[in-house]
Recover the amino acids of this structure.
């Protein structure tokens, strides 16, 4: 008799996006001529940068010639040309000293933020924000770090940190002692960012408690305010206590190409039960090399092109399109009386529903009256109740039309 891993049975149904899909389909069936505009998708819509396409085509040609063909990447952590471009452009240019040996290339920040918990003991206490990117939660449930459901989509055994208007959507370190802390700035779904001072509190907390911060910076290139840190390593002492996750998905349109990286600084250590310090970098590399054979050469060549002069300019232009949409959404909705957050340093707008209206009810109103798809905030965690998330990905004409319709029904 084959036993199942019962941790998987603790998972609550992935309810949010299937339910959004179900409601949209039901509405379309009854209203086949409705022109529905989606402001719900968390995926990019603009094509890849021409510099990336050029580099990938060149790489394809190299793979077709015996002299330049490449098989497995023996380093197991990504080609040096890409790690060098990342180290110099993303870090050293901003006076953050991250070396190529501290960068591990992967196929996505989803897999990295999902897999990282594997190298840490099951007894660690995990702290997460509410609302949250569901990957951090579900992977810890699968691993067995939680008990069963605790109501409102929560699990016993996890420390939830609500992000609310009261704390400006950036949680303070908890009173209790936790060991693994997931932070995501710029934040999905809220669009909030953390200041240097706020992140410093977390770094201090991690030092005091020998905890580790898992910092998801997938939206780092959307930051427009110059005083907001792009990397947790801009905070003194962060290299001893933080792992940073980055991705080409949202910053360079790679959601369908797949390339990302994780930074594990040399100074970063965790402990054995008897208190011996162990370096984390080699363990993460060992894990990756055992379970993953690397990102394709063609993809890594495309990712490196993001750091060329033309590549940088082109991805900036694309981000400007999305952030232009974000500004339009933010300003139009504020003007007509809604309270909105985010959309300045992130492609997400967090809209407060009218008083007394739930996330799902407001979702239904937008769908039925304005034919606009949003994402109910409650689906990201109980502290998201009373909000909806709008995304700035999409064509500007569609965004304008969606906003006109919302204005008409408001
Ligand atoms: C989109 C997203 C990612 C990126 O995932 P990839 O696997 O690199 O495509 C990571 N974290 C958050 C919070 C995201 O929204």
């Amino acid at each position: 008799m084959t036993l199942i891993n019962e941790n998987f049975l603790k998972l609550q149904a992935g309810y949010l996006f299937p339910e959004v899909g179900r409601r949209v389909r039901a509405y379309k069936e009854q209203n086949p001529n409705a022109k529905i505009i989606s402001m719900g998708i968390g995926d990019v819509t603009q094509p890849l940068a021409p510099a990336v396409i050029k580099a990938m085509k060149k790489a394809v040609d190299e793979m077709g010639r015996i002299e330049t063909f490449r098989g497995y990447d023996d380093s197991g952590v990504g080609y040096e040309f890409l790690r060098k471009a990342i180290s110099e452009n993303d870090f050293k240019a901003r006076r953050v000293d991250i070396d190529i040996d501290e960068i591990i290339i992967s196929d996505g920040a989803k897999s990295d933020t999902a897999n990282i918990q594997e190298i840490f003991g099951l007894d660690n206490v995990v702290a997460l924000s509410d609302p949250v990117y569901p990957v951090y939660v579900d992977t810890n449930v699968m691993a067995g770090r939680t008990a069963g459901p605790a109501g409102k989509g929560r699990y016993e055994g996890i420390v939830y940190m609500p992000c609310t208007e009261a704390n400006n959507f950036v949680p303070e370190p908890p009173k209790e002692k936790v060991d693994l802390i997931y932070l995501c700035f710029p934040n999905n779904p809220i669009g909030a960012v953390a200041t240097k001072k706020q992140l410093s509190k977390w770094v201090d907390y991690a030092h005091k408690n020998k905890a580790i911060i898992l910092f998801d910076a997938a939206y780092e290139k959307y930051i427009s305010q110059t005083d907001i840190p792009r990397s947790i390593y801009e905070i003194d002492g962060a290299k001893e206590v933080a792992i940073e996750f980055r991705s080409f998905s949202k910053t360079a349109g790679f959601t369908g190409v797949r390339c990302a990286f994780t930074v594990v600084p040399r100074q970063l250590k965790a402990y054995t039960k008897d208190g011996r310090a162990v370096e984390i970098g080699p363990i993460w590399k060992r894990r990756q090399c055992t379970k993953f054979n690397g990102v394709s050469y063609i993809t890594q060549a495309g990712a490196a092109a993001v750091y060329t002069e033309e590549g940088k300019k082109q991805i900036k232009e694309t981000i400007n399109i999305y952030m232009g949409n974000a500004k339009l959404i933010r300003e139009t909705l504020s003007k007509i009386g809604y309270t909105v957050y985010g959309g300045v340093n992130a492609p997400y707008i967090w809209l407060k529903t009218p008083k007394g209206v739930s996330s799902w009810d407001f979702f239904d109103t937008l769908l039925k009256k304005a034919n606009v798809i949003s994402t109910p905030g409650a689906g990201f965690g109980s502290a998201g109740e009373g909000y909806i998330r709008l995304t700035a990905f999409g064509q500007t004409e569609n965004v304008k039309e969606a906003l006109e319709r919302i204005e008409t029904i408001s």
Observations:
- Residues 42, 108-110, 133, 184, 188, 216, 218, 247, 249-250, 255, 260 surround pyridoxal-5'-phosphate (CB under 6 Å).
- The chain has a mean pLDDT of 96.
- The longest strand covers residues 242-247.
- The domain at 6-47+310-409 is CATH 3.90.1150.10 (Aspartate Aminotransferase, domain 1).
